[in-house]
Amino acid sequence: MSKFAEPMARLIDELKKLPGVGSKSAQRYAFHILRASDEDAALLADAIREIKQALRLCSVCNNITDVDPCVYCSSPTRNQRVVCVVEEPTNIAALEKGHNYSGGYHVLHGTLSPIHGIGPEHLRIANLVARVEQHAVDEVILATNPTVEGEATAVYLARLLKSSGVRLTRIATGIPAGSDIEYADEVTLQRAMEGRREM
Amino acid sequence: MRAADGTIHEMALKSSEAVVLRTYPLREADLLVTLFTRAEGKVRGVAKSAKRSRKRFGGALEPLTCVRAYWQDRAGNELARLDSCDVLLSPLASAMDYARAVALAHVAEMLDELLPDREPNDSVFRLAWGVLQALDFPAAAGTGAPEKSSEIWIPVTYFDLWTMRLLGYLPSLEECIECGEPLAGKPAYFHALRDGLVCATHRRIASSEMTVESRALAAEMFRNPVNHFSPERLPTSRLADLRKFLMQIIHRHLDRTLQTSAQLEKLD
User: Fold this and answer.
1) Closest by alpha carbon to B68, among B28, B9, B18, B108?
2) Which residue out of B96, B135, B136 would a mutagenesis test of the A interface target, given it has the greatest number of A Cβ atoms within 10 Å?
3) Predicted structure pTM score
4) At B64, which CATH number?
5) ipTM confidence
6) How sure is the predictor about B11, in pLDDT bands with cuts at 50, 70 and 90?
7) Are A115 and B105 inside 8 Å of each other by CB?
């Protein structure tokens, strides 16, 4: 027999499916929702329902959006001939924080990950290739993470797009601003030295 | 660790050469890391704050990085506390193309799936270390270079063959398992439901052939280190028959297929 009434047990079970939420946290959230006002609980339920109903992928860049094309692809102030390729939609928010990039984006929704069985056919690459082949793009910036999987994905895309003649660039890697060389690992230092520039 | 009399005993900091096999996110900022250490075999540990701060571990926890790892075991907990890692050989030090990423992931998956926890195996460790060095080919540097998938086949096949042999799963490649007839210079066949090679007389329907060339190269692999073989030695079959034979043994042993075996087949 369950420790809780059936609706409470069901909510706890659903909350436990969220990343980083264990039994204790799920119980805490469920009791918080129970104690909240009817209005707050309804707002939460509506927000969850709406995220599934209203959000979709942008047909141009695969970003998550409620309007198609998304705000980045339809903005007249952004340079749509430069495309920055990122792994996940959350990477766009991180790049926008920098306030120094005003081109378009392309979201792959993952990286090549052989150990998880994810090959090129599982990534959203087709509409990137189509954009490049239609000569709608002058430069593709490969901004996947500098990890084994991110690097493999960047090299794969670079080889795929090379023949189109588009300018292909890779984001720089090296010592983070405000950090200390003493704490940098060997690979980061190697890359920082390779990527040094004239002053 | 607090003893019954109230005194606190610190667990000793252990250190060993190790290969990082896999990492999984754990809680908000930690990583659960599987290491194949020379001293203690496969060790699982928690790298505190490794996701949030790169200061302590940097790129050392990328899969297939060869490191000197420092960890502390915790009483009553099978997960160690990973203290730090010094990079000895990073896969990111040379260009990472898809073929190489698949090969490295295959080595990691094989070691993770086939080795038991906390059982040192120096022979397999030396094999993995040598194969990872063989898969570190700087010649492929630069995105404009063609995909060098041909360079992965010898190290990958060498690793599979020797791993099977060292773990005791490899049957004889010299004779028919049914009649004992020597197979030297003759056609040999294998089947998904059988453990070794058979002669033409005992072949079943849906058997595959292993070429004389592949068996000769396998015999040579048993006598030489991996760096003895150059990619030019690769036969036209790319040793696909030998790898298929080895994968069938592994899949039968694990009772499931490896994720990376399908990726390797697609590259072939």
Assistant:
1) B18
2) B96
3) 0.84
4) 2.40.50.140
5) 0.81
6) confident
7) yes
